[in-house]
Design goal:
Layout lengths: L2 E4 L2 H10 L1 H12 L2 E6 L2 E6 L2 H10 L4 E3 L4 H7 L8 H11 L8 H16 L7 E3 H18 L7 H12 L10 H4 L5 H27 L5 H7 L4 H14 L2 H16 L1 H14 L8 H13 L6 E5 L3 E3 L2 E3 L4 E4 L1 H4 L41 H18 E5 L6 E3 L3 E3 L4 E6 L1
Parallel strand pairs: 1-2, 3-9
Antiparallel strand pairs: 2-3, 4-6, 5-13, 6-9, 7-8, 10-13, 11-12
Bound molecules: protoporphyrin IX containing FE.
Length: 422
């Protein structure tokens, strides 16, 4: 049974908007692994226990839909895979899945390596830059090339800017009042609509181009062969653009920050890359542990939300229809029960992790809505990391960044560094 709390609506909104991750973390620390918060008409459950997460994402998943927190995201993504309701999702997932099949990964890996190297060649010894922005630029370029062919080319910076503009107002995406705020004449709203218009224009242009060039074997070609409206196509493309680059970029930024703080691990990564080469994905075991551990401490998708569509039993509690459930990898993955010294970066724990129960670690979610890009992202993170460390050393200019939980878990203030050639 959950611990029960009553919080006034203004206090709840204030805490969720100022620091949602801090607020939820305190709820967990003070009240345990299963917490019920009633706030005005809202009924919210925080689930941290692996068994309960399992019930929501797997056993009882048909009784839940995506939660309203995603409504904000819908403003940009429409009804793409991430935000689609059940029936549409089922159909679309089947159509999109082949783009992520195992036999495509080797081709994608080549693009990851070449694109990363291209970007790294522009770096200069002694240069100051923000690794967070660099990682965003590289992953955006990679997603464009792998999923849409090379057809965006020199417009990548424009896409990056439009993406940034349209996401600027999202940092508070979980706030209950946000749906109303989109109608206010705020600067962030103006930027959102401008960014969205630019992205739409680019995506519709891509679709039009590809109709003429025919099948190129990529994600976009695959969608074009399926029966789907232009609007649905646009939504799927926008979803992949967004879901497919910001998450991996953040995973890498946190990994690079943690390595700078842990020189012994930086050395081990360096030695592994020297021994096996930076392209040998299968052999880069230490790189895998390191990225996995970074995603444990700083999971890019820090909260996963659902809403009960009908009354449902979870952990012996009957959740009413309309109850919102929040499952947070960022909180769950720091439990000492499963991860001794939970706040410490200890990649070696992944050497022997078979004993972990399912959903003690779930940076990619689980069940029918599990991240479609999981294998792609794991491969991408390892190969990008190896490419960076093979060529460059860097010195962090500030202390370890704090977290800025928006749609994804970003490092506040980015990751400013000074580069040194290795
Ligand atoms: C480190 C990188 C990534 C992380 C941590 C991550 C995390 C997640 C999580 C937790 C979900 C499930 C959300 C939920 O259940 O509500 C998800 C869904 C999704 N992700 Fe990822 N993701 C990553 C990379 C990618 C990449 C590279 C792509 C595409 C190329 C991608 C595309 C998607 C899509 C389309 C969905 C919706 C799937 C569905 O509902 O069927 N993600 N991701």
């Amino acid at each position: 049974m959950p611990a029960r709390l009553n919080i006034s609506a203004p206090a709840f909104i204030w805490r969720m908007s100022r620091d949602p991750l801090g607020f939820l973390t305190r709820l967990h620390q003070q009240h345990g692994n299963f917490v019920f918060v009633r706030s005005g008409p809202r009924r919210l459950y925080l689930l941290i226990e692996p068994e309960l997460v399992h019930q929501v994402l797997i056993t009882e998943n048909l009784k839940f839909s995506k939660s309203r927190g995603l409504e904000m995201t819908k403003r940009l993504l429409g009804n793409g895979l991430l935000t689609a309701g059940r029936e549409l999702h089922l159909r679309q997932r089947r159509l999109v899945q082949p783009a992520f099949a195992k036999n495509r990964m080797a081709g994608y890996a080549r693009v990851v390596i070449d694109t990363t190297r291209e970007h790294l060649r522009r770096w200069r010894h002694g240069q100051f830059l923000d690794l967070s922005q660099e990682m965003m630029a590289i992953t955006l370029d990679i997603i464009t090339r792998t999923m849409f062919g090379d057809s965006i080319g020199e417009r990548t910076p424009l896409v990056a800017r439009a993406m940034h503009d349209s996401l600027a107002g999202f940092n508070v995406g979980l706030i209950p009042l946000m749906p109303l705020m989109q109608y206010l004449p705020l600067e962030s709203n103006r930027r959102f609509w401008r960014g969205r218009r630019q992205l739409d224009a680019i995506i519709y242009d891509l679709i039009e181009q590809r109709r003429h060039t025919g099948d190129q074997g990529d994600f976009l070609s695959m969608l074009l062969m399926a029966p789907m409206s232009d609007e649905q196509l646009r939504d799927e493309c926008m979803t992949i653009f967004l879901a497919g680059h910001e998450t991996t970029a953040n995973a890498l930024t946190w990994t690079l920050a943690l390595l700078a703080q842990h020189p012994t691990w930086m050395d081990r990564v360096g030695r592994e890359i020297e021994a096996h080469g930076p392209e040998n994905y299968a052999a880069l075991e230490i790189c895998r542990w390191v990225t996995q551990e970074a995603m444990r401490l700083y999971p890019p998708a820090w909260a996963i939300g659902r809403m009960a569509q009908e009354p449902v039993q979870i952990g012996g509690e009957l959740l009413e229809r309309g109850s919102v459930v929040i499952m947070s990898p960022a909180i769950a993955q720091r439990q000492s029960r499963y991860f001794p010294e939970p706040d410490t970066f200890r990649p070696e724990r992944w050497q022997d992790a078979e004993h972990l129960p399912r959903f003690a670690y779930f940076p990619f979610g689980g069940g029918n809505r599990v991240c479609i890009g999981e294998h792609f992202a794991r491969m991408e993170a390892v190969l990008m990391l190896a490419a960076v460390v093979a060529a460059w050393d860097y010195r962090m200019l500030d202390r370890m960044p704090t977290t800025q939980p928006g749609i994804t878990l970003r490092p506040r203030g980015g990751l400013p560094v000074q580069l040194a050639r290795r």
